[in-house]
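Quick one:
INPUT:
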């Protein structure tokens, strides 16, 4: 079946596309895809609630207008004050550099005093204190510092980072329940600001020494912002002291962001897993389902990343996986295309082939369409055409296809209720019940026993209407018009399957459409919304344009012959060709071939008709659907004919809410007395009606 083949093709294309994406994700374009991971992490981690390091301050030495030696001297003075005040611990994340030929300052002896002083292990001051750790921060290639190493191999010894050395020295710190020996990286998020105290306030101000007692003191000569050494994912610029404080806080509060081994494995597998799921489940879906699945999956991935980050303090990068899923989703949307338009195009091509008698190409095109009642109706017509060409095996193939895709549509049997005169059978069609009656006969719901399919059969008592030579002529005209109507294959036209004569009744078997005639919406209390009425009229105009191009004129367009399925929003024109059956029998039927109030001036004058006559009737129909009354009314036929042929209809704009002023111009053109002054074709009228609908 075509649809299955199409899905296999789409899945193969999606698989190839996903494979290329995976090669790029794990290959040459990996850095570009990493940008997605970084963007998501930066966005989510910026709002992550953190705690500042408890009982800690930063003593800031102003480096402006101070020489190197003066700055070093200030470091010594502040260390002396902190030692006397019995600070808990002193951290020098980035002391001034000392050259190899420079001697250590005299105050460096205080580094080995009772108050632990932590310095980077690469600085010369590290020679004077056992409390050291490496200070090496490597930002990503976009300049943002997102991770900090906890351990570093130096020779055969693993050395801790300075923040980790500070945390490990804290004897009151319980062992971390989250970190394992394999965790060697801590991920950064944002910085909760610590108070900064100028050096002069410590040395000469009234800063209470009791506030220094037992506190964690950072000493730096890097002013905030100006002396920033790194940019965090939150976009904050931080100095060495601020960065070290953030890491110590994460370690001591056990709130550091980690990437356990199982998360690393999941991050590597996630793009491939999402690609496989996308290829398996997306290509066979419709556009709406693909969109819903894509949005739900990406939202679920984001929610998962947020939960892990905010609750477990675990980083999971899903940006690459989300990009691959979105990429395959977009490709699937493109491959699926607009199924409605694809079906319409295939249906139109199939209809053209069927009208030209090219049945095999028609069958191929119809199989490209999505299953529907309209398609089943046309396929039924195609099977009959195959039989007429003496190809019963192809007719059976069509019927088998219908059974596989449509299924058997059983109709509930209903009793006739004692309707007098209703035949039990016309031709091969089994009559079930009457579903309508008009001036020209009755319409029955029947069943074609060949395929157990419901059809509508319109029966006309042709022998009662005509006699002798007129009867022969009526029969010829009937079958000629039925044949012309049978060539029409359009979504908005009821399909004619068959025509015949039985028991003195001429009958036409056609598609059964469960719908409501628009006649039910001409009551002023039950009018359709103006926009809906205009859209239905536009669909009718397009169908008429198709029929006119096939050389078929309806002759009896009116609300009763337009069937509307409100559930599906579809419309079907019925009774094509029926109105002409009694065209030459005016002595018996008068001018009431349809309903005179919907007739064009040339139809009333028995002139040669063109498709413009149908457009006039459609204009009358639309007028009635919009305001609940016809444009021409009179007490008798003669007066009505005079009004239709000589008077202009009253304007309707303003008579009802939602009627655009332009509707009067459209109606005036449709109801022009002379055919050449009306719309040139149904397609032109449809465009005008849809333009009105936009403003209604």
């Amino acid at each position: 079946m075509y649809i299955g083949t199409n899905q296999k093709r789409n899945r193969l294309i999606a698989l190839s596309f996903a494979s290329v994406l995976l090669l790029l994700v794990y290959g040459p374009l990996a850095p570009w895809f990493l940008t997605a991971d970084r963007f998501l992490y930066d966005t989510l981690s910026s709002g992550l609630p953190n705690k500042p390091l408890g009982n800690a301050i930063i003593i800031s030495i102003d480096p402006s207008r101070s020489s190197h030696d003066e700055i070093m001297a200030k470091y010594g003075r502040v260390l002396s004050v902190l030692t006397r005040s019995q600070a808990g611990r002193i951290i020098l994340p980035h002391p001034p550099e000392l050259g190899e030929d420079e001697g250590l300052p005299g105050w460096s002896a205080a580094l080995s005093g009772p108050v632990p002083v932590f310095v980077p292990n690469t600085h010369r001051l590290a020679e004077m204190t056992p409390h050291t750790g490496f200070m090496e921060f490597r930002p990503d290639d976009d300049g943002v510092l997102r991770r900090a190493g906890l351990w570093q191999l130096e020779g055969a010894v693993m050395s801790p980072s300075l923040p980790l050395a500070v945390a490990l020295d804290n004897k009151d710190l319980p062992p971390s329940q989250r970190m394992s020996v394999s965790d060697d990286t801590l991920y950064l998020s944002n910085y909760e600001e610590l108070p900064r105290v100028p050096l002069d306030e410590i040395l000469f101000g009234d800063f209470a020494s009791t506030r220094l007692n037992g506190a964690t003191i950072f000493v730096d000569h890097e002013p905030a912002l100006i002396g920033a050494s790194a940019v965090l994912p939150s976009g904050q610029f931080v100095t060495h002291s601020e960065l070290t404080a953030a890491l110590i806080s994460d370690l001591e509060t056990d709130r550091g962001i980690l990437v356990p081994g199982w998360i690393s494995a999941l991050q590597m597998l996630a793009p491939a897993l999402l690609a496989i799921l996308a290829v398996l489940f997306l290509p066979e879906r419709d556009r709406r389902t693909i969109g819903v699945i894509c949005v739900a999956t990406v939202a679920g991935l984001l929610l998962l990343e947020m939960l892990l980050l905010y609750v477990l303090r675990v980083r999971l990068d899903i940006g690459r996986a989300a990009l691959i899923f979105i990429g395959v989703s977009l490709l699937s949307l493109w491959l699926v295309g607009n199924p409605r338009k694809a079906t319409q195009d295939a249906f139109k091509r199939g209809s053209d082939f069927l009208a030209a008698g090219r049945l095999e190409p028609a069958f191929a095109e119809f199989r490209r369409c999505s299953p529907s009642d309209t398609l089943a109706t046309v396929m039924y017509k195609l099977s009959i055409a195959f039989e007429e060409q003496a190809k019963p095996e192809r007719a059976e193939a069509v019927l088998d296809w219908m059974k596989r895709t449509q299924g058997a549509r059983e109709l509930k049997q209903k009793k006739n209720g004692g309707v007098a005169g209703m035949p039990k059978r016309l031709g091969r069609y089994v009559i079930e019940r009457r579903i309508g009656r008009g001036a020209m006969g009755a319409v029955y719901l029947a069943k074609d026993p060949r395929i157990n399919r419901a059809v509508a059969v319109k029966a006309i008592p042709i022998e009662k209407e005509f006699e002798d030579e007129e009867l022969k002529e009526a029969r010829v005209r009937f079958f000629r018009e039925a044949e012309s109507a049978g060539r029409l294959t359009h979504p908005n036209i009821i399909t004619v399957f068959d025509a015949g004569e039985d028991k003195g009744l001429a009958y036409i078997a056609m598609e059964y459409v469960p719908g409501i005639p628009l006649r039910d919406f001409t009551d002023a209390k039950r009018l359709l919304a103006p926009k809906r009425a205009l859209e239905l009229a536009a669909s009718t105009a397009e169908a008429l344009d198709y029929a006119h191009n096939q050389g078929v004129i309806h002759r009896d367009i009116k609300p009763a012959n337009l069937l509307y399925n409100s559930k599906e929003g579809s419309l079907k024109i019925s009774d094509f060709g029926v109105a002409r059956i009694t065209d030459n029998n005016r002595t018996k039927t008068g001018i009431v071939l349809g309903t005179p109030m919907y007739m064009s001036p040339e139809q009333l004058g028995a002139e040669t008709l063109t498709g413009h006559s149908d457009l006039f009737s459609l204009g009358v129909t639309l007028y009635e659907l919009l305001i609940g009354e016809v444009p021409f009314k009179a007490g008798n036929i003669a007066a009505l004919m005079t009004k239709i042929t000589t008077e202009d209809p009253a304007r309707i704009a303003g008579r009802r809410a939602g009627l655009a002023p332009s509707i009067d111009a459209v109606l005036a053109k449709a109801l022009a007395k002379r055919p050449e002054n009306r719309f040139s074709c149904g397609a032109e009228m449809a465009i005008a009606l849809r333009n009105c609908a936009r403003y209604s």
